[in-house]
Amino acid sequence: MSFNDLQCAHTDHYLASIYVVELAGSLPCQSKPFEFNFMKPLVPFIFSLTSFFISVLLLTEAGGAAAEKDGVYIVYMGAAPSTKGSLRDDHAQLLTSLLKRKKNALVHSYNNGFSGFAARLSAEEAHSIAQRQGVVSVFPDPVLELHTTRSWDFLNVQTSVVIDSNPDSNSNSTSHDSDAIIGILDTGIWPESESFNDKAMGPIPSRWNGTCAAAQDFNTSNCNKKIIGARSYDVGERSVIRYHSPRDMVGHGSHVASTAAGSEVHGVSYYGLAAGTAKGGSPGSRIAVYRVCSPFNGCLGSSILAAFDDAIADGVDVLSLSLGAPSFLKPQITNDPIALGAFHAVQHGITVVCSAGNDGPDPGSVVNAAPWIITVAASTIDRDFESDVVLGDNTVIKGGGIHFADIQKSPGYPIIYAKSAKKKEADINDSRNCHPDSLDQEVIKGKIVVCENLDGLYSPSQKKDEVKRLGGVGAVLIDDESRQIASSFGTFPASVIRTEDNAKVLSYINSTKNPVATILRTTSPTKYTPAPVIAYFSSRGPSTVPKNILKPDIAAPGVNILAAWIANDTAEAPEGKDPPLYNVISGTSMACPHVSGIVATVKSKHPTWSPSAIRSAIMTTATQINNLKAPITTEKGVPATPYDFGAGEVSPTGPLEPGLVYETTVVDYLNFLCYHGYNITTIKNIAKTIPDGFTCPEESSNDLISNINYPSIAISNFNEKAGRKVNRTLTSVTGDGKSVYTVSIDAPADLNVQVVPDKLQFTKNGDKSSYQVSFFATNPLKKDVFGSITWSNGKYKVRSPFAVSSKSDN
From residue 560, how far is each of 280, 400, 507, 658, 719 by CA, in Å? Predict the structure, then answer.
């Protein structure tokens, strides 16, 4: 994979380039945007190779405060004081001392959910503050990246769980009566979108403490009973361009918000494609917007922490973040704004849902992998955007992509293999791949051109542009990965086909003196099989921080998702058409809000459930079967493993009645920090509450992380001779009275798995029962192996996946 591919693969597929860390006193140089998929960005995103590599060097542990550059640093001081809105003494003293020396140094102060601040510091000052008592970590302010309808209908069809409902409730749809509040940390919102209307919604929940911040292009009247809060976070003097408004200027935030909690809107489509009713996962939920990303300055860690801090005080129930660090730049927990903010949010009873990243299918690429976060992978749905290629012998090749070309249906256009149009001086591989300046314009003119994808240096859209520039009348693009995603080609005829179909095309071209073809206009058929399939771009496990937590947790629709968009995006509009009000994009960014909506629905029905109980309900009721009644596969057609999709594809209704849940307690999370190498002093600074007498075990190690009460099991550094034992505890949430659950084990042939006891009995709601799992093997494991443990009482099935590896975290 090329360097450009690596950058673009981790953003949503319309984003031009990666966000960069901007250092004080320097402006990033601008490079030509790399279009991974189809959207020409509304505003050019900035990519600086120099700044990018500097950011890699800066994201280090607390010692990273000694980085050699001045700039904005985050000073993280752990838990906030018990008095709401007040500063800890050490926090106040540090700020007072700093502001005496530098009047305008402060960027943000955090004092609601946790303590700390972001400030403009010299490297020397940062290093000095890192040594102060009460300071957990000091690190340069990182810039994170965005991870970028029918999906809900498909999920409802896919679910195999039957839910007991009240006579006047609808078990086939998500709740319209939810009063849950979903906080969206993203690029803002386009409040005029019909997806954010508040028709028939009741009063704003009295527990809401947030605000609707006015700006030049955003009035308090833009908030309503659907959008109940809106904040934005500026970065001050170091901004390339100042923009301080909750209004979405990119589209990403509006798309995410409407996927999670958009109101029902009938008659929605993308220029006639994918027509139907658009709705969010929890249409009755409220939306609180926290614009932490801008098209000019990226998604700053200091802004993300400020949003977490405000959201905790505002009273949200769910936080949805479709953004994160790139997979090759994974900060330690105490230097990770999302992990830190999420930790404190969960301690305040807020469920945090994050995208897994778009760096797949590389192993170990998953991000946002802290155990208190629900980490979401991306899958396809059963709708395709089909643009077929018809050859002169009437062979029909099923292709993909979106175009609105006025082109004849009968095959009458000359078709040529790009290699045959090579410029005399060009490299033959460049011409086969339709690289710029590699094709002879006189040969290309008036023809449909077949372009390969042997090196991945250019996207389908860029190859289409080159063919169009040279006077071609259409492009057939061979790209297995991009076939899964609907690239948008505007009014130019183009289709993406699979490698296996290329042989048919080339065979036809070589079989006749005057080969001809046409490319049919796009349609959007449903009931496409197989679905779901794990998207090729979806980041994969195993988690590397650490490997003993199985990530991602769950998969949800993230490919070709139709949702609300900004109404002034002329760059996205095909020639001669108005900007779209709804757009089709792909990414784990789109998968994340699907789960956030389900979390809100569960929270509405079970308001006392903890974030870990909700996560357990979502994971243990997931499905592993596609719409062909066969195992869900990856993009390569092989069965997906927990490294691909965690517990499986999310069910929108199953989590409402899971039967049993795994409660991951405060002590579990504290032990995780111990096992991960943090000392008790640091942990006491981080945590809001610590049970009396708690201390880290004398022999802490990553291997012990397998023992925290998580809904899945991950074991690394497995020794077949010694084996491994882990414990789990289940809590009854059915309210059904006495119930007995029996275990069933699905294990690979080379691994022996035993569960003791093999029956668990519960007498009332809230009852707990524990079991132990023993793993043994006769021979060393040659590869990572997977299986599952399922508890069932005939009515409920509570399934936990496991992964066992002989490899260590290193």
Answer: 15, 11, 31, 30, 43
CB 134 within 8 A of CB 684: no
Chain-wide mean pLDDT for the chain?
A: 87
β pairing state of 273-278 and 143-146:
unpaired
Q: What pLDDT, on the 0 to 100 scale, is given for residue 14? A: 34
Asked whether the predicted pLDDT for residue 54 surpasses 50, the reply is no
Give 201-265 as a DSSP string. --PPPTT----B--BTTB-GGG--SSEEEEEE---GGG-SS----SB-SSSHHHHHHHHHHPPPE
Helix, strand or coil for residue 149? coil
Helix (H) or strand (E) run with residue 114 in it: strand 114-121
Q: What are the tens digits of pLDDT across the range 413-428?
A: 999 999 999 999 999 9
Confidence at 19, pLDDT banded by 50, 70, 90: very low
Angle at which helices 588-605 and 611-620 cross, to 10°: 110
Please spell the DSSP secondary structure of 34-60, one letter per residue. --SSSPPPSSPPP--HHHHHHHHHH--
Strands 474-478 and 448-451: parallel
State the angle between helix axes of 252-261 and 588-605 in degrees (0 to 180), rounded to the nearest 10: 30
Q: How many CB atoms lie within 10 A of CB 259?
A: 34
Beta bridge partners of 494: 475
> Which residues are within 8 A (CB) of 504 and not within 5 positions of it... i.e. 6 or more apart?
391, 395, 397
Dist CA 587 CA 525 (whole Å) = 21
Q: List C-alpha distances in Å: 709 to 164, 167, 205, 756.
A: 28, 36, 33, 16
Rounded Cα gap, residues 157 and 176, in angstroms: 19
pLDDT of residue 177 exceeding 60: no
* pLDDT for the residue 375: 98
User: Taking every pair of C-alpha atoms in the chain, what is the biggest distance, in angstroms?
Assistant: 85
Tell me whether strands 561-564 and 351-355 are parallel, antiparallel or unpaired: unpaired
State the catalytic residues: 186, 252, 589
**Best CA proximity match to 455, nearest among 485, 431, 437, 483:** 431
Least confident of 63-77, 281-295, 404-418, 784-798: 63-77
Residue 159, both tokens:
């679910």
- Could you give the CA distance from residue 102 to residue 118 in angstroms, rounded to a whole number? 13
Tell me if residue 309 falls in helix, strand or coil: helix
ω before 414 within 30° of 0 (cis)? no
- For 168-177, the CB contacts below 8 A with 24+ separation are 171/653, 172/653, 174/280, 174/281, 174/282, 174/283, 174/597, 174/598, 174/601, 174/652, 175/282, 175/283, 175/284, 175/601, 175/604, 175/605, 176/283, 176/284, 177/284, 177/604
Give the residue from 404, 397, 406, 466 showing the smallest Cα distance to 430: 466
- Per-residue pLDDT at 736: 76
Bigger pLDDT: 240 vs 254: 254
- Give pTM, 2 decimals: 0.90
Q: Is the pLDDT of residue 178 over 80?
A: no
Question: For residues 742 and 769, is the Cβ–Cβ distance under 8 A?
Answer: no
Q: Rounded to 10 degrees, what is the CA torsion of 537, 540, 543, 548? A: 160
Q: What is the pLDDT of residue 809?
A: 52
- Asked whether residue 127 carries a pLDDT value surpassing 60, the answer given is yes
pLDDT class for 742, splitting at 50, 70, 90? very high
Contacts of 593 (CB under 8 A, 6+ apart): 184, 256, 257, 259, 260, 280, 281, 320, 322, 353
Least confident window among 167-171, 429-433, 565-569, 576-580: 167-171
Give the CA dihedral 19, 24, 27, 31, nearest 10 degrees. -20
What residue type is assigned to position 284 of the chain?
A: G
- The β-bridge partners of 761 are 740
Bridging pattern class, strands 396-397 and 389-391? antiparallel
Is pLDDT of 176 > 60?
Answer: no
Check pLDDT > 70 for residue 242: no
Judge residue 278's burial from the number of C-beta atoms within 10 Å of its C-beta, 0-12 exposed, 13-18 middle, 19 or more buried.
buried
Contact 546, 370 (CB under 8 A): no
